[in-house]
Amino acid sequence: MRTRLVLLSARLLDPVTGAFLPETALAVTGGLISALGDDRAVRAIADPATTVIDLKGAVVTPGLVDGHLHPVTGAELTHGLDLSACGDLDQVREALARAVRDLAPGTWLHGWGLDPNVFGGHPVGTAPFDAVLDGVPALILLFDAHSALASRRALQIAGVDGPRTFDQASAEVVCDASARPTGLLLEDAACELVERVAPQPTRAERRARLAEALRGMAASGLTGGHVMDANGDSLALYAELDAADELPVRLRVAPWCQPGTGADGIRALIAQQGTGGALWRTAGVKLFMDGTIDNGTAWLERPDCHGESTAAFWPDPDEYTRVIGELHRAGVPTATHAIGDAAVRHVLDSVEKAQAAGAPGAGVRHRVEHIETVPDDTLRRFAELGVAASMQPTHCCDFTRADHTDNWSRRLGEERASRAWRCRDLWDSGANVVLGSDWPIAPYPPLGVMAGARHRRPSRNLALPPHGPEQALTALEALQGMTVNTAWAAGEEHEAGRLAVGHRADLTVFAENPLTTAATDLAELPVLLTVLDGRPTHRAPAL
């Protein structure tokens, strides 16, 4: 088998020790690192068909992997009016008014990224925008993607004129005292009432948007992602891009298991494991134990300041426990969305019960996603149970404030808000901390995620104080959170996450050492080269 790629004059950074390897070059054969050595020895391995790149002292790390993202959903949701930069209601109204002026009569307005903090503690709803959206069908996704605002015209078209009951216990059409919808829709089941009557992009448009988003991810230094959904025809889209050699990011996909999934559905999820293509595969199952703190649908051990966030996503939490046990026995790893302390505790209890039942599920690696606030007695259980702590530090950076005046912190109160995103405490307790973006909830560039884990400051204004600086990770830990630890969480530590012969040739190349670049400068560190399966997916003009 011929040598596919040779990289010369490199500084090869070991993500385990944080030191540079003694070698200065590497070769790739068949998608794997086949040799490490000095420039002269490795150059001799190349043949006329080998791609040879002189890195001129650039720094090479194992390819960065986002531990939690939603590529298809993100590609769809991030088209339309971006409201993420709006800091108050006036700015939102101005943005909506500009968008409405450009709309043809009857055309839907789609918005995304709305921060509930713009409401300043007042109820979240469409009332402040009714005059601007008069007669306009509009659907605006809040930043958490677990809630949306539907204009009066959109609700009318969808036939939503009062409360509804859903299988998802925390889903709700929020209504006022007169049982009239306020426009706020909580969780997928409620949002879908309006989404299904709104115009949808063509399949060709969706495929093109997905391909563009994945190319952007590769250019940002990502070589892989743990995808936390398989909704709609997303698997077919991945398969098409893979077959056309247009998949620039290696994807590990976990389809959803929702409340009400019957025995046949569970069997189908188990049978689906391992299916996929050259650069993507189905691995694991994604479940939800709660919603979000910002919209009052998390599951907390004590209610929030509005008396909300008191219920699990599964109407019968014991049924969730039973499903975890069945998947564990089948050898299927699970990833559960659990934001509130009660939700996290129930997931850990369920995993512990499944493990206590013994083989054949021994060695199955489960994970908890988000973990936004937990008490001290929960920390040690991650390491004891071998459960990965999958976290998104940029959510803390950009959606909360150091002084706890934000919506998330106000809802929780001072005690629980002071336990925000306990990355440091979980790491020190022995947990395997995996870092990710949860794109489209937050931007996907991995350097921004790593930077946020270190500085914990709002990315739009790094001069502002950090939220919980004592929970910051070191530069090396942040790198490990997107290399070594993502590989471990996927059960791939023997083939990924290291610069070693026989490991995958998924590589990220930086202009300088990310470990010595200041946290506040890290997001701007140039990515010179991204390599997936031994083939460049991004190459800066400088190379």
From TrEMBL:
<feature type="domain" description="Amidohydrolase 3">
    <location>
        <begin position="52"/>
        <end position="537"/>
    </location>
</feature>
<dbReference type="InterPro" id="IPR032466">
    <property type="entry name" value="Metal_Hydrolase"/>
</dbReference>
<dbReference type="Pfam" id="PF07969">
    <property type="entry name" value="Amidohydro_3"/>
</dbReference>
<dbReference type="InterPro" id="IPR013108">
    <property type="entry name" value="Amidohydro_3"/>
</dbReference>
<protein>
    <submittedName>
        <fullName>Amidohydrolase</fullName>
    </submittedName>
</protein>
<dbReference type="InterPro" id="IPR011059">
    <property type="entry name" value="Metal-dep_hydrolase_composite"/>
</dbReference>
<dbReference type="GO" id="GO:0016810">
    <property type="term" value="F:hydrolase activity, acting on carbon-nitrogen (but not peptide) bonds"/>
</dbReference>
<dbReference type="InterPro" id="IPR033932">
    <property type="entry name" value="YtcJ-like"/>
</dbReference>
